[in-house]
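Check these lines:
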Amino acid sequence: MTKVFRFGVIGCGLMGREFASAAARWLHLSDTRARPEIVAVCDTNPALMDWFRTHVPSVAQATTDYRELLANPDVDAIYCAVPHVLHAEFYTAILKAGKHLFGEKPFGMDLAQNREISAVLADHPHLVVRCSSEIPYFPGAQKVFDLARSGEMGEIIEVEAGFLHSSDLDRNKPINWKRMEPINGAYGCMGDLGMHVLHVPLRLGWRPQSLHAQLVKRVPERPDGKGGMAPCTTWDNATISSRVSAGGQDFPMVLKTWRIAPGESNTWYLRILGMQKSAFFTTKSPRQWQWMDYTGGIQAWQTEDLGYGSLFPAITGKIFEFGFADAIQQMWAAYLDELAGGNANGFHCATPEEAAAHHAVLTAALQSGRENRVVTVDYAGGAV
C-alpha cells in the first residue's frame, strides 16, 4: 500500500506551485512507496494561497503565520521555499516542531545560518531533511554521474559544472529580492545557484581544497517598480577555479554560477574529462548525453538519445522527452521514497551535509573574489 505523507507548504510562489503540480500528477509515476498530499499552506500574500485553495482540494489550512501551520498535527512534513534571509528562522522552527523538512537552497543565507540549522538538526536525527536540487535527475545527468562513479574514467583531467541564466542581461528587468544582499545574502548568484553546480561533484566526493573566484557585478541598479531605480547589491556572475584532491587524484574543477549569460535560458551542464573515458550532459539537449572512450587511436565523442529513462519509473513512453517538470517530480519521488524508508533508488536528494560543504566552498569563493587571491577551503570553519 502506498503511504501518504501530509505536507505543509511555506512559501507559495513559483517553486511551491511546482511542488503542487508534481503532487497533483503523482499518478504519472508507476511504482512509488509513498505519495504527498498538501494539506496546509502559508504565505504572507493571500493571493498566492488562493491559488492553492483553488487548485489543490486537499488544502484544509491557509495561514499567513507559519507558526500556526507548524502547530497543525495533521502535517507530517514541510516544503519551505522562502527568501534566503528567513532560512535559519524557519528551518530551525520546522525542525523543533518535529516536522520532516525539504528546504530550498542554499539552506541558510550564509555559513553562520547554515551552522545554526545544522546544530538544531543534530538534535533531531530522526527527521528526514533534504535540500532542493532537481537537475541531476535528468536521465543524461544520471548517465554522467553513473560513469564517473564507476571509476572507469581513469585519471580525471578536469571537471566543469555550471548553471547559466540570461534574464539579468536586461537592465530594465525590475529588481527583486535576489538582487538585494540583505535578503539574498552576500553570496549573490552563488547562493542561488551553487547547490545546483556542486550537488553531483560533492556526491562523488570531489570537494575543492583550494580555489580562486572571479566575482562579477555588471548591473549596479534596476527599476524599482515605482518609477525610480534601486541599487543591485549582489554578485551577478561567479567563476570559481578550484583544485580537488580525492581518491588519490588531483585535478582542477571549474564552477560557474552566472545570472548574466548571453543566450542562455536555464542551462545546467556537467563535463568530466578523463584519460580513459569522458562524459558531458547539458539541459540544452535534454534527451541526450555524450561520452568518449579512449583506448588509443581515434578520439570520437558518441551521442545517445535517452528518451524518458527516469530514475523512478513513469507511464511516459521511453521514446518521449524528459523535461524540467519531470526532474522536479523525480526529485520529490526520491524524497518521498526516503520518507517511506527507501533508498531513493540509489540517488537521494542533496543532504544537509552536502549543503554545509557547499557553504564552505561559497564562503571561500566570496573571500577569494573580494581579496583576489587563492583561498583554502576549510570545511570545519569556512575559509583561511
The longest helix spans residues 352-371. The longest strand covers residues 156-165. The chain has ten helices and 18 strands.
